[in-house]
Amino acid sequence: RLSNPLRPAILAAARSSKLKAALTKAPVTRRIVTRFIAGETRPEVLKVVAALLESGRVISIDFLGEDTTDRAQAEATVGEYLALLDDLAGLRLPASMNPNNEIAPLEVSMKLSALGQALPVDGDKIATQNARTVCEHAQRLGIWVTIDAEDHTTTDSTLRIVRELRTEFPWLGAVLQSYLRRTEADCRELAGPGSRIRLCKGAYREPESVAYQSRSEVDASYRRCLEILMLGAGYPMVASHDPEIIAAAGDMTRRTDRGRDTFEQQMLFGIRDVEQLRLAAEGYTMRVYVPYGAQWYGYFMRRLAERPSNLRFFLRSIATV
Ligand code: FAD
């Protein structure tokens, strides 16, 4: 991932509105994005979710959208999440998923930037209130919420908002990114009882001053951070497709005597499906992060940047049209 020489260029392109307009209009792109995105509409994503649940995996759904620039758009996003929660609550869960289990099989993931965090006036306040509205509804329905991590300029504000909301919703999850130099300290602070922390490597382009740049440093940081979380009293969520990280997580759970109901594995929809099924069959809680919505461009470009083979797949598909 971080060794992909095209990564900086692709992540820069992820912010280009011209390229976004050209790519999102091209019919071929639409066909390719379905590998990573479960659909543009709620009925489409619900079909995917039903199949994932049937296969023994649990889910977290992300309604795609980021960099919201007006309040009405942020409110529309809240409206979509509320409708999504209602639809999720109406799903029939497989008999194997015990409703009394402490682990919620259903979760939604949200980006605070989609809820108004970047608005020039009262962004933090608006995003907090919007997230609270979603959390209140989710709590009534027994569905979990996790707040995604975005670029490092938002980390302080996001963690502040998570801390505030966790006084009302102690089950609210947060995401930490091992490429950030600060994350070990954040893990120590957030490894307390009941704290649900999704640890990932990080998907944005970050300067050296705040983030490790080489893959080996990011991986080493991931292991240090995971160890802190595993030794802590919280509920770590191991979000990675990396076989070495997954094996290291297995070792740590054995060493720290953690039961399988005290942490979970997570992967993205469309990535390492066979491995997801293997982990679920072995009795791990395997949660799949399922994105949907028309605003898929930024998410899609981050997946292309992660792996030369994802990019090759995309270019080959264009070439064969
Ligand atoms: P990488 O270093 O990308 O890959 C390591 C190895 O994994 C590869 O060498 C290969 O062996 C294997 N692998 C990776 N991809 C594939 C593939 N397609 N097929 C086969 N093998 C593969 N990032 C954020 O910044 N904020 C978030 O809120 C966030 N949420 C996430 C939620 C989940 C559930 C997950 C899984 C990721 C999330 N991410 C988030 C993205 C994350 O930060 C990484 O960008 C992404 O997961 C790639 O890192 P990796 O750990 O999978 O390892």
Describe, in short, the structure shown.
The protein is of the alpha/beta class and 321 residues long. It has helices spanning 7-13, 17-25, 27-33, 42-54, 71-89, 123-141, 155-166, 183-190, 215-231, 243-255, 273-281, 297-306, 308-319; strands at residues 58-63, 106-110, 144-147, 173-177, 196-200, 235-239, 264-268, 286-292. It is 48% helix and 13% strand.
Characterise this structure:
- It catalyses: L-proline + a quinone = (S)-1-pyrroline-5-carboxylate + a quinol + H(+).
- InterPro entries: FAD-linked_oxidoreductase-like, PRODH_bac_arc, Proline_DH_dom, Proline_oxidase.
- Pathway: Amino-acid degradation; L-proline degradation into L-glutamate; L-glutamate from L-proline: step 1/2.
- Keywords: FAD, Flavoprotein, Nucleotide-binding, Oxidoreductase, Proline metabolism.
- With 321 residues, the chain is an alpha/beta fold.
- It has a single domain, classed as TIM Barrel (Alpha-Beta Barrel), CATH 3.20.20.
- It is built from 13 helices and 8 strands.
- An 8-stranded parallel β-barrel has the order 1-2-3-4-5-6-7-8, surrounded by 7 helices.
- Helix 9 links the parallel strand 5 and strand 6.
- It is globular, with a radius of gyration of 19 Å.
- The two termini are 27 Å apart.
- The mean pLDDT is 91.
- The structure holds flavin-adenine dinucleotide.
- The site of flavin-adenine dinucleotide (FAD) has 24 residues, from strand 4, strand 5 and strand 7.
